Hints:
Elements: E1 8-10, E2 16-20, H1 24-28, H2 42-45, H3 48-52, H4 55-70, E3 79-81, H5 83-89, H6 96-106, E4 109-113, E5 127-131
Helix pairs in contact: 4-6
Amino acid sequence: MSEHLTARRVDATGRSTGKFLDSKFKKLNSVPSGQAFVWFTREMVESPAWRAMSQNARLVVDRVCVEHMAHGGGQNGSLPVTYDDFERTGIRRGSIRRAIAEALALGFVEMTRKGTRGYGDWAGAPSLFRLAWLPTSENGPAASPRC
């Protein structure tokens, strides 16, 4: 990208109006059409909690984000994620419980229902999660991560 695309319009006093000089920049810097996404704020990503998060806890947050996108952003608070899902994401099975506990303690995800392990023919039930900084599927407010 060339620098001129990001140049801003200015008002009579020389202050930025917040609008870009080149209208192409907004289009080039927007979410691709038809793609699911999750937004992160700068404040959240620069927070001490985010920077202190271990790799496995980050993988927990990432996996819940993937589940949120798979449900079209409309099921936050009811996002089913199994141990097998976390394992496929790259967390060793023996580390999953600690990684979930860390992500919960830092406030980036919440567990809305604890899952149950399957035995024999009974499949069990996955834990349900929500991304704390996004509103819930029942129109509940977003929580503020402990940043």
